[in-house]
Amino acid sequence: MREVIVIIAGIAAATAALIGVCIRRKHSKIVKKNSIRLRELQALNQRTMFYGGEEKNYHFSLDCASKRQFDNLEFEEFLFSVLEEDRENIRTKICEIACNRKNYAEYVRESGLLVSMATEEKSRQSRRKSTAKRKK
Questions:
Q1: Is residue 36 scored above 90 in pLDDT?
Q2: Residue ranges of the domains in the chain?
Q3: Which of the four, 7, 61, 96, 106, has the lowest number of CB atoms within 10 Å?
Q4: CA atoms within 13 A on the CB side of 129
Q5: What is the distance between the alpha carbons of residues 125 and 132, in angstroms, rounded to a whole number?
Q6: What does the alpha-carbon distance between residue 14 and residue 6 come to, in Å, rounded to a whole number?
């Protein structure tokens, strides 16, 4: 008897999950179709450019033949020599970071200006129109 209850509960949970997914997809389609703010935000995303996206790990190593050589190693000199070797790439990354900071500040400002124009009543009207079109 206990197994039957567990199976029924599992089936009910799976059914509820499927219904929830279906409702969410339908709601998402309605929002994508009718939301002016979403379209404006997507347009903002298209016209705003950010550098990066790739993740690069840097690894530098230096072999020391003895503990004495390690103790006498000038880490600052080593760091500066590594930086000197990759100077152009570092300058490019610094410029890209500065540009990203500026673009992000502008993006945040512009996205804050995108105020939802839909009131609760407009949302209801839009839903009624969608439903009426589907019935035709």
A1: no
A2: 36-51+60-136
A3: 61
A4: 9
A5: 10
A6: 12
Kindly list the distances between the CA atom of residue 132 and the CA atoms of 31, 74, 87, 127, 128, in Å, as whole numbers in the listed order.
16, 77, 64, 9, 6
Task: Determine the Cα–Cα distance for residues 101 and 95; give it in Å rounded to an integer.
Answer: 10
- Which two tokens mark 89? 């790439």
- Answer yes or no: are the C-beta atoms of 99 and 51 closer than 8 Å: yes
Residues sharing a CB contact under 8 Å with residue 97, sequence separation 6 or more, in sequence order? 51
* Mean pLDDT on 100-122: 85
Q: Which contiguous run of DSSP H or E holds residue 130?
A: helix 120-135
**CA–CA dist 136, 133 (Å, integer):** 5
Handedness of CA 108, 114, 119, 122 (dihedral sign): negative
Residue 34 CB contacts under 8 Å (≥ 6 apart), including other chains = 118, 123, 126, 130
pTM of the model: 0.56
pLDDT in tens, 57-106: 777 888 888 989 888 888 888 888 888 988 998 899 899 999 999 999 99
